[in-house]
C-alpha cells in the first residue's frame, strides 16, 4: 500500500501491467495487427491469427500468465479484454477464462479450491497455514496448504515426499513383500518362483519352510504346524529385504497400506451399526440415543486409525535420536489403545457402556497426543527434560544406599 501511494506508475511497470514510458514505441494498426509496446520485443507486430494459434498451442498449460502476452519474449501482461477478442472461437475463450481463474486462485494465499471432483467451492481462511478444512458441498476434508487429505501429525512437505515415494515404489514394494523373504540363517534375500514351500538357501544350503521360516521337516507346510509364526519370524515377514533403507521403507509402507484397508472396514462397521440402530428404532425396540454408546466409539475408532496411519510417514522421515524414540513410544501407545477399543467394541453389550466409554476417552487422549501442536510441544518439553536428566545424572551420579550395619 505504501508503494501504491508513493509511486503508482513504477509499481504498475514492475507488475507488468504498464510498459516503461522510456521504452515506449509506436503501436501498429489495431484492426490488423497486435504490436508489443515494449522495447525488449523491438516493437514486433503479431497478427490475430498468430496470437490465437500461440494460445491454442499452449492450451495444455494450466497457467494464463504465459498466455496473456502477444509476444512470447515480452514481459508485459496483456489485459483480459485485449486477449479475448484475439481468440478465434468460444472454446479457446472458455479455456482462457478458466486459466485466469486458476491463476487468481494460486496467487491468493487465503483462498483454496476444493480438491473434490468438479466441485466449484472456494475455501477462505483468515490465516494461510496448514490446517484442516472441509467443503460444505462434498464434505471433502483436506489440508488447506497442500490440498491432499488432512495428514496430521505429518507436515505438508513430508506427506508429499511420502506420497511420491509410494507412487514410485509401490509396485516394487508389493512384489518384494509377496515374493521374497530373508533366509532365516544367513539373511540373504530369497525369491520364491515355484509352488513348493520347501526352500534351500543357495548361500548356506539351509533347508527351511517358506511358510513358517523354520527348519524343514516332514510336517512343514501343513496348516497345523505353520499356522503361527515362530518367535522372531515376524521380522522376516514385516521386513523382507536386506538393506536398512529398504527395510525401513517396507516396514512403514506395509503398515500404511494395512491401515488404509482397515479404514475401509471401519467405515463398513460404522454403517452396519448405524443401520442396526435405525432398525431397532423403527421396530420400537429402543431409542436412537440407546445406540450412541456404540456409534460414537465406532466413529472415534476410524478417526484414530486415520491419525495413526499418518504417523508412519512422519516416523519414516524422522531423524534417529531421542525424538524418534519418544515419537515411536507415542505411536505404540496409540496402536495399543486402538486395538483395545476395537476389541471392546466387538465384545460390547448394553452392560459394558461404562468400560467402553472409559476406553473411548483414553483412546481419544492418546490420539490428541499426536496432533501437531500437542505433539510438537510434548516432544520439545520431553526432549529438553531428557537432556537435563542425562546432564544431571552425569554431573551428580546417584549415591548408593549405605550398607546395612546389622
UniProtKB/TrEMBL annotation:
**Which Pfam families has this protein been placed in?**
Ariadne, IBR, IBR_1
Q: Which reaction does it catalyse?
A: [E2 ubiquitin-conjugating enzyme]-S-ubiquitinyl-L-cysteine + [acceptor protein]-L-lysine = [E2 ubiquitin-conjugating enzyme]-L-cysteine + [acceptor protein]-N(6)-ubiquitinyl-L-lysine
GO MF assignments: ubiquitin protein ligase activity; zinc ion binding
| Repeat among keywords | yes
Keyword check for Transferase: yes
Spell out the Gene3D superfamilies in the cross-references: 1.20.120.1750
Name one process (GO BP) from the record: protein ubiquitination
- RING-type domain residues are 1-230
Q: Which SMART domains match?
A: IBR
Name of the molecule in the record: RBR-type E3 ubiquitin transferase
Q: Where is this region: Disordered?
A: 349-374
Traced from the root, the source organism's taxonomic lineage reads:
Eukaryota, Metazoa, Chordata, Craniata, Vertebrata
- E.C. numbers: 2.3.2.31
Instruction: Give the keywords, sorted.
Output: Metal-binding, Repeat, Transferase, Ubl conjugation pathway, Zinc, Zinc-finger
Domain of life of the organism encoding this protein:
Eukaryota
